[in-house]
Design brief:
The chain is α/β, with parallel strands linked by helices. It folds into 2 domains: 2-93; 117-292, 3-Layer(aba) Sandwich (Rossmann fold). It contains 8 helices and 7 strands.
Length: 293
């Protein structure tokens, strides 16, 4: 997957840069040791002429070792540069980087928001969700019709869902931000999904009765309870709710935080629970529940 390769390349690039700094430090240590050693040789040559042959032999051995060390360093440095170029290219040629460039040129005020959508925290929370979904083999019988509420830019969640849900027929996205909707169109152009993707504004304003297999929301803290809308879904079959929220109450836009997965399930009327859990993200805890009403 592009997001998987993007994140791997991002991590590998950080590791390479760390290793390169460490190698530079080691190189400076070697240079200092070499200078100190050659200086000591000069002093010893003046003081102990009789040991010239021995010292010369030792010096030759050290010079050979120095050339070997120097050659290893040059090869290592070359490999660092090749790996850095490779990982940078992986990132720059991915759809995520192309969309980032589009935003920087067209809506620069949204560029940081796009980067927020693929941070480690966002990626790990969606990865956690998709790992749980994949183990259930959803969509193996009938292709799934899915709704994503608070869809933001759509990706990388959509790309990750393709790996987690075996067959997808349709995805409805809900986000009132028109720039976010335009970014979704850019992603669609690059990813070319084989199923239909429909875009809507405010989820809570849609009132047609419909069949959906799965309702996802990874940002329940930003909105009213999703369970309030269950009257608009047919129960043949009942849709599977996949909900995430957190306990990070310090942000004013977090209007609907919870203290546990149990509370998240209760607030949304989920009684047939297939999974519930929590994950520590440092300054907040993210909760997830999967199930039906």
């Amino acid at each position: 997957m592009f997001i998987k390769d993007f994140k791997k390349a991002e991590i590998d690039l950080k590791i390479l840069q760390r290793d390169r700094r460490a190698a530079n430090i080691e190189w400076q240590r070697c240079v200092g040791l070499w200078e100190k050693t050659t200086g000591q040789w000069d002093k010893e040559e003046a003081k102990r002429a009789r040991e010239e042959s021995k010292r010369a032999s030792e010096k030759r051995r050290n010079e050979v070792e120095w050339e070997r060390t120097k050659g290893e360093w040059e090869r290592t440095l070359g490999q660092f540069e090749k790996d850095e170029i490779r990982n940078t290219n992986t990132m720059e040629f991915s759809p995520y980087y192309k969309v980032k460039r589009f935003l920087e040129e067209t809506y620069p005020e949204y560029a940081s928001s796009l980067l927020d959508s693929i941070t480690d925290g966002q990626y790990e929370s969606k990865k956690w969700m998709c790992q749980v979904l994949k183990s259930e083999h959803f969509g193996s019988k009938d292709p799934f019709k899915i709704e994503i509420i608070g869809s933001w830019f759509g990706w990388p969640l959509i790309e990750m869902l393709e790996d987690a849900i075996e067959k997808i027929e349709q995805i409805d996205l809900y986000d009132p931000d028109e720039v976010c909707q335009e970014v979704v169109q850019k992603y669609k152009y690059h990813f070319k999904p084989s199923y239909s993707i429909n875009q809507f504004g405010d989820y809570f304003e849609r009132n047609d009765k419909r069949i959906r297999h799965m309702i996802l929301c990874t940002s329940c803290e930003h909105m009213p309870d999703i369970g309030e809308m269950k009257e608009y879904y047919k129960d043949t079959p009942k849709p599977i709710y996949v909900l995430q929220s957190n306990d990070y109450t310090d942000l004013s836009e977090h209007e609907n935080c919870v203290e546990s997965a149990e509370e998240l399930a209760e607030k949304n009327g989920i009684t047939d629970i297939m999974y519930k859990g929590e994950k520590d993200f440092g300054y907040y805890t993210r909760f997830m529940v999967i199930g039906r009403w």
